[in-house]
Amino acid sequence: MTQDLGRRLPLLPVGDIVILQSGAHYTQVHRDTDELDVEAVSNHHLPAHQQLSAAQQEQLAAAGWTRPAPPATYNWWIRQPAPFSTRDGLRLAERMVAALRDVYGIVSPDTLVEQTDNILD
């Protein structure tokens, strides 16, 4: 999944969103005109019983995710400016999957649902 997603990310059309989700936990990437905007769900969007601990939040920060800064952004985020290489795509896909596996505790890729949409349609 990671390799396939990583190869696809640099080729996403403007407006496309790809979401990897298991229950309330998700990571997503949005292709804007001049950047890839990657997000990982924060406590703002999680139910009380699934809130991230301080240690989990530190894991995200240590992995290079930028902390939420409401009202500008409510999720953890990474921005990759254009132009995008396959290497950039693979690195971002690895971070998305690692957050789901290592921070949110998704143990099997079989539980992940991938959704793709275009917000410009």
Automatic annotation (TrEMBL):
Pfam families: TY-Chap3. InterPro entries: TY-Chap_N (IPR054344). Residues 2-112 form the TY-Chap N-terminal domain. This is TY-Chap N-terminal domain-containing protein.
